[in-house]
């Protein structure tokens, strides 16, 4: 089992330069995430949640404040953080197991230990028997399972998820949400999910961070004190979902809200 990382975001500010003028994207973000916690981040388009994730993974820099992993400032990408995007980004010329091995290219350790980890993660995501399949032979949901295995195969401290199921149909999305919960519990690591889907945020998150534009700020943090596995049709689940959705009932027109409330599975 991997070590679960502690994330501390302290007074984070981020801006871009547009037509020679600064455009503030994130404004004074502070958030602490405990080891092994699953945190969902929701907000309307333009609230900076994907920018926040890119800063956490190390794909962007040039910010003010601190982003700390286990007390150390994050600088660039690292094997201690894995990420899954909305698009699976698999290499079409590689098999399932070879695509997962890509996650170990810069990892230390013996070849036998790496191969064991690849096979363990193929089993973890439920793809035993598909080791030699190519991406074009897989469904969208299966491809995302490969992407999740690739992000986890090096046993990172933190798993970052940027709308990982946003391109899938409702039934597949619901099933993979359940699978992601199982995988996260099995790995025992810290997880941070960015999503437009409020139901998904409630189903998976220990806490929900509600962001507002522009610039992106944390409007509210909602606890989800529900036992797992969660019943989507329960009154308690519906109450938390409605509570989060109420935060967007007065969203300004230019915020382009695109929050999703799918049918319960």
What does this structure look like?
The protein is globular, with a radius of gyration of 18 Å. Strand 4 and strand 5 form a beta hairpin. It has seven helices and ten strands. With 265 residues, the protein is α/β, with parallel strands linked by helices. It starts with 6 loop residues before the first strand and ends in a 19-residue tail after the last helix. The strands form two sheets. It has a six-stranded mixed sheet, sandwiched between helices. The relative contact order is 0.20. The model is unreliable at 251-258 and 260-265 (pLDDT under 50).
> How many distinct helices?
7
Count the beta strands. 10
Largest sheet: 6 strands, mixed
Given the helix and strand composition, which structural class is it? Answer: alpha/beta
User: What helical percentage do the residues reach?
Assistant: 25-40%
- Residues in β-strands, percent: 15-25%
Mean pLDDT: 88
- Across the major sheet, the strand order is 6-7-8-3-9-10
Radius of gyration: 18 Å
Characteristics:
265 residues; alpha/beta; four-stranded antiparallel sheet; 7 helices; 10 strands
